[in-house]
## 1
Amino acid sequence: MAGATPTEAVVEVAERDLPLHCPTPQTPVWSYHPRVFLDVAEAGEIRCPYCSTLYVYRGAKPKGH
């Protein structure tokens, strides 16, 4: 996958952040969009289809379902 450009938002996530959804609880209310769950652990990085934020997973691959 392509990396982010200097103007794009990049958010690093870890195991404690899973399951990941965008917008996150830290997202300002004015920039909310419909919640979408993202499988960042499988791909290593994933881009939100609504706001284009790039999420990069930094952690061990989760075990389980």
## 2
Amino acid sequence: MPLAKTYPFQPCDSEGPVFKEPWEAQAFGMVVALHQSGAFSWEEWATHLNAEITAAQLEGDPDLGDTYYRHWLRALEKIVSKKGLSSTAEISTRVEKWRDAYINTPHGQAIELTNAST
């Protein structure tokens, strides 16, 4: 079964899922992997994602499709916290380490996150 039919709201073109940035594909893959491992049902995931999209729309997001994966990421962070897979503090620390690594990496070089376990 094509991915577009398995995950009907995933933006797709004739080639399959469409991602503008690598992190979008990674976030998508993390959700699929967590779902497939039994961490949460697809219905639970859809509820979290819908809540994030609705909240963003209420805050003025014009819902043009360019913020979809930001909502996806926020929903992922919330569901893994709710399920006890990671804490909000752990997620915040990891985000800050990635941000620092990104800012301090010269353009054109691979971003390396050191000491990722802390």
## 3
Amino acid sequence: MPQSLSTVYIHLVFSTKERRPILRDKAIRESLHAYLGASSKQLGCPPLKVGGVEDHVHLLCRFARTITQAEWVKEIKRVSYLWLKEQSREYLDFQWQGGYADFSVSQSNLPEVIRYIEEQKQHHKKISFQDELRALLRKHEIEWDERYVWD
């Protein structure tokens, strides 16, 4: 086949360093989500939904075939880290966690994942980020070691 075609959807989740609730300000958080989406789009990974709460973010995107997952995550974390530090002195000590989790999403499950990301605020009235991530890891049958998941 002379043409390369791909439709891969990825749900990416990562938190602030030590899950610090530094993204409390709703306006900054929404601007950060928009910036993350725009940054992902520039990397060829157009977002379907970006959201999150005070201590972590979720991105659902159509993944490019020209970049690795590691390159994509590294770059959007890097540029958003720099952008946030420019917004206020309050964010001078801001850091993202070192790692991340991402999950493949079938096209038929896109509406469910979009709704899940939209409902983060309500969701986290009942469950912590750690418990949410554990549930996602179990759902996707990913083995993990608690000693190395949190930073």
## 4
Amino acid sequence: MAGANARSMESLVGELEAVRRATIAMLEGFPDEAWGRWGTASDKSVTVRALAWIIAGHERHHMSIIRERYLNG
């Protein structure tokens, strides 16, 4: 749906790397007191810490798909 099939692997890898670097920079910039704050995501209450773990798990999911589909295991 995002049109990824029309893009080069180099373009997709570059985007993945850029988003990962930006996410890490954002998380590293949070003050200690931010990690326990609560908010709402998809109509569910969640902490900043939980969102960081969700983001990390989502990245692992995508890396698993890349390994399975494009790197032969």
